[in-house]
Specification:
The complex is a heterodimer of chains A (about 290) and B (about 325). By secondary structure, chain A is an all-alpha fold. Chain A is about 75% helix and about 0% strand. The N terminus and C terminus of chain A are likely disordered. The two termini of chain B are about 15 Å apart.
Chain lengths: ~290, ~325
């Protein structure tokens, strides 16, 4: 293949994977994210024990051959809880970011395409929502609805959709002024064609980057609220619940907290590194901001 | 400048009103009224009715909202459902703790971030620069409450250097300062990375400016150029980021306060959420939102003063 042509067409779609693999940070992120996704998907088959089965006789055991990560205050196997915790953390964050992305897409399009007054009203809503300190808003919603997984997802959707909506709105506005869109319109293309043929392909890149950067925040929020006993209800093995229970037995069995923090750190690092790597590949204009 | 200031303040006030109306309406959109939720399933109808009356829930919703705004303007954020103490008193009692935590955390993060960012510019495109880059991305993404828990285990439980819980003895400065070290470390550490990145990026842009080229031509050392001339310009964008970042600092503080059982806004509101103590939750959210908006607005006005080009933005 001729390399000169390759250089000109960068970033070509098949070049994305290769460029990502060449960047050590992006590669590390990709490996971590794939590992956690595999853990989440395969949890029932790879977890050595039932994550909520009690075995009080074997409580507070340090790591051993039978329990690689030890056991907690009720004798539950910590490794199994962490593996199932990956399923919870990723399940909740991917669901809520997916909904937030879809909602942001629709509202962003409405704001960008709709009448001026609607645009101003929506922008005021987006601004108001993102000018609240996130956690206080989340806590207010939890007070009203009561803690639980559904509330958690709703809270995450509410705090994260404005950034997606803004991204889509900005792209829509800049696109609707472009000459080639004007030409399309002159040839009789309707909004559906313009949105699907021109707008969406243009926002996929920034959306993917935003999602990758958003997921660590969401994982943190899920774990943090569960840690405060305001998120996923025990005995579900959320990483936050494991940390909270380990914190209560900090003096008898410090291994619980030490081990339970590791997946949280690695998962957030993984998605952030992947997001950084993808930004380099997908958003060449932003490359100057990147620090490698 | 005055016109800009008025517009900017008006926008903040509008956002505050929208936020509070939305919050207040939210309580009424869900099934079950606040009084029965707060009292729990075993409350008698008479008890509920009494509490509803005391909270003003028997009035039409529009009247309630107007009452609510009227009271807020008079500095009355309502009373605690359980202890019957005014909410504002409870907030003001613990707010200084949270404010000190936030300011100290942001302060040390700013100093470290500026130093590391400048170091990265001086050593740019070397291995040290790359390592600092990876390190700052890493600390940005690690959740602060996990940092808090690890710091607590290492420095308070194992090494026993610093207290594990509380905010120190009242009136004893040394004890209060010691109790502040670990929480401030945990809250600020992510911001060290973030600010280092920001300073580095904005400084690299400044380094291309003509006055820097002139300084180079006069034979100034790279270090003098960075600290004496480039930093002054490069720090301006950081001001607005710092103000916006104060919101996420407050969010981290909520979790970190809980890890260290440190009295503050975070421990106040989480306890209130658990007991579904509506007046305390709503009052705290309103107080913190207003405080945060005030910080952001002040920063915007400061920037507009420093950089006249910004003043035109709101006009368009």
């Amino acid at each position: 293949m001729s390399s000169a042509v390759d250089d000109i067409t960068l970033p070509a779609r098949r070049g994305i994977g290769r460029a990502l693999l060449r960047d050590p940070m992006g590669l590390a992120g990709l490996v971590l994210v794939v590992a956690f996704l595999a853990m989440a998907l395969l949890a029932p088959w790879i977890a050595p024990y039932d994550p909520i089965a009690l075995n009080v006789k074997a409580k507070f055991q340090p790591p051993s051959a039978a329990h690689w990560a030890g056991t907690d205050h009720l004798g539950r196997d910590l490794l199994s809880r962490i593996i199932w915790g990956a399923r919870l953390a990723l399940g909740i964050s991917i669901t809520s970011v997916g909904i937030a992305g879809a909602l942001g897409l629709v509202l962003g399009l409405v704001a960008g395409y709709g009448p001026r007054w609607l645009d101003s009203a929506l922008v005021l809503v987006f601004d108001s929502m993102s000018s609240l300190p996130m956690i206080f808003f989340a806590l207010a919603v939890i007070t009203v609805l009561g803690p639980g997984t559904t509330t958690l997802i709703l809270v995450i959707v509410l705090v994260s959709f404005p950034s997606y909506a803004r991204l889509i709105r900005t792209q829509t506005l800049s696109l609707s002024g472009a000459d080639y869109i004007l030409a399309e319109r002159a040839m009789g293309a309707g909004p559906v064609r313009i949105i699907f043929r021109h707008l969406l392909p243009n926002v996929v890149g920034p959306m993917v980057i935003l999602i990758c950067m958003d997921i660590p925040v969401v994982i943190m929020l899920e774990a943090g609220l569960s840690y405060l006993n305001l998120g996923v209800k025990p005995p579900s093995p959320s990483w936050g619940n494991i940390l909270a229970e380990g914190y209560n037995s900090l003096r008898q069995a410090p291994h619980i907290v030490v081990i339970a923090g590791i997946p949280l750190v690695l998962a957030t690092l993984g998605f952030t590194f992947l997001g950084e790597g993808l930004r380099d590949v997908l958003d060449p204009r932003g490359a100057g901001r990147r620090w490698t | 400048m005055l016109a800009y200031a008025i517009r900017r303040l008006g926008l903040s006030l509008l956002i505050l009103i929208v936020v509070m109306t939305a919050m207040y309406a939210m309580v009424f959109l869900v099934p079950g009224d606040p009084a029965s939720l707060a009292l729990g399933p075993r409350a008698t109808p008479e008890l509920k009715e009494a509490l509803r009356e005391r909270m003003g829930l028997d009035q039409p919703i529009l009247t309630q909202i107007l009452y609510f705004f009227g009271n807020v303007l008079q500095g009355d954020l309502g009373t605690d459902v359980w202890s019957k103490r005014p909410v504002l008193d409870q907030i003001l009692e613990v707010f200084p703790n949270t404010l000190i935590l936030g300011v100290v955390a942001l302060g040390w993060a700013l100093i470290m971030g500026v130093l590391l960012g400048c170091a990265a510019v001086i050593w740019r495109d070397t291995l040290a620069d790359r390592l600092l880059g990876v390190l700052s991305v890493s600390v940005i993404s690690i959740p602060s409450f996990v940092v808090a828990i690890y710091a607590l285990i290492i420095f308070a439980v194992w090494l026993k250097w610093l207290p594990a819980i509380g905010a120190g003895q009242k009136g004893d400065f040394a004890s209060q300062a010691r109790a502040l070290i670990l929480p401030a470390f945990a809250v600020g550490v992510g911001w060290v990375g973030y600010l280092a990145r920001l300073i580095r990026a904005s400084m690299l842009e400044v380094m291309e400016a003509p006055h820097i080229r002139t300084a180079r031509a006069f034979g100034m050392s790279e270090r003098d150029i960075v600290f004496r001339h480039a930093l002054r310009v490069a720090i301006v964008p950081t001001i607005s980021i710092l103000a916006v970042g104060f919101g996420s600092i407050l969010s981290s503080a909520v979790f970190v306060e809980s890890v260290f059982s440190r009295p503050g806004i975070g421990t106040l509101i989480t306890a209130a959420v658990e007991k579904r103590n509506y007046p305390v939750v709503m009052g705290t959210v309103l107080f913190m939102t207003a405080f945060y908006l005030a910080v952001v607005t002040a920063a915007d006005l400061l920037i507009a003063r420093l950089d006249p080009r910004v003043r035109d933005v709101l006009r368009s």
